[in-house]
Amino acid sequence: MADCTMEGESRPRGSAEGFPGRLDMGSVTRALTTALVMTLAALPTYALAQGVASCAQAPAPRTAVADIARLIRASYFDATRATRIANGLEADAKAGLFDRYTDPRDLAFVLTKRLSTEDRHFAVSWAPKGNDATTTVAALDDSDTARANHGFSDVAVLPGGVGYVKLDLFAGFEGPGSPQQAAADAALRFVAGTPSLIIDLRDNGGGSPNMVAYLVQQFVAEPAKVASVFRSRTGLDGYELSPVASTLPKRLDTPLFILVSARTGSSAEALAYTLQAAGRAVIVGERTGGAANPGSARQTADGFSIFISVSTPVNPITGTNWEGRGVTPDVAVPQDDALRVARILALEAEGKALPRQAALVLETLKAETAANAADQALAGRFGDLQIAESGGALRLVQGRRPLRTLVPLGADRFSLAEEPAARFAVERAGPGGDITALVRTLPGGGEIRYPRMMEMSATLQ
């Protein structure tokens, strides 16, 4: 191979993130480290600096492909497909199709692109000899996931009383009392009193099926009836059931909404798919990545590693899984609008008897669209308020307080995107006349009037 240098292991962004739901979950924890590298470190196309090494350590492309083909033939969960995939690789290697990829990182990338059309979890990487990737990744499991709160990156009660949990990684755990379980329990307790709940998986690439099963049991009466069965070459390989029984009250009737995107993969898809199939959650967003088959990494003697699926999940309700197809949302919307839409659905799911503040929030969310532009005639100074254009929208400024974005509600009324229960009305000098003041209605029913002042710049600098 030609000489070249690199800094560390190469891993395409399409790295696998899903892992087997075996009865013995120790192998899952070890396999989870692959997901930790990608999900927590937010890796670019080539990632993880581990030190400079010479590509001369890597084998010739034909040798590397032959080694990878042998691993697939020996380990992939479907023996028939494994033989076909391996034979195809060996034939193309013999024909010289890979000879030009003398840089092992390039070969790894090309093999990943090719193999991922067969199974979304296939991923090839390369690290020079002496690069102890396993030790490095294990360290990520212990410290980096803890710094990331074991995947629970945001928990909130949104305006209107909707619970919100953002989960960016399914951290692995084995038994009761783990910090991962504690993080999950803390998040769920924080939103325990909300009448509806949104779980945001738009940035979640996957992780441990243990966390999937732990969360599923919070929302279904009989988890065993909705748990996927994992099947491998040898038959039944396990069930996606939690190793720990939750002590939290179940939320069997809470309206539940799960946000997904094309980034949502593997175990994150498993949570969405399982609760959707059980009729327990409404999925909102874009179709997911379509990586269902869990597995683990296999190494060659010359520095290449390939993630190979060793089992496939079968949902007891659908009789299949989401491999290659992804999870289809019940409500298909652009992923960046999924939260707003889910908040509307959550509030509407409570029925018509919403409290006043929640009803005001719902009205604002429905009006909050790009096509609903604010009246530019509002720009100007009103008492100690200033309204000016910034970033293509009208903003409200009051002293040193944070900017607020106007949301027109029609009939000379508007709200604020950041304070959706806020209400302002425009006061005019007669019907259709010039704007003379803004009037803010207070939650208790009082009003504050802001008279229009001398015109100033209509653009915030």
From TrEMBL:
SUPFAM superfamilies: ClpP/crotonase. GO terms for molecular function: serine-type peptidase activity. GO terms for biological process: proteolysis. Residues 132-334 form the Tail specific protease domain. SMART domains: TSPc (SM00245). InterPro entries: ClpP/crotonase-like_dom_sf, Tail-specific_protease. It comes from the Bacteria. Signal peptide: none annotated. Residues 1-21 are annotated as: Disordered. This is S41 family peptidase. The lineage of its organism: Bacteria, Pseudomonadati, Pseudomonadota, Alphaproteobacteria, Sphingomonadales.
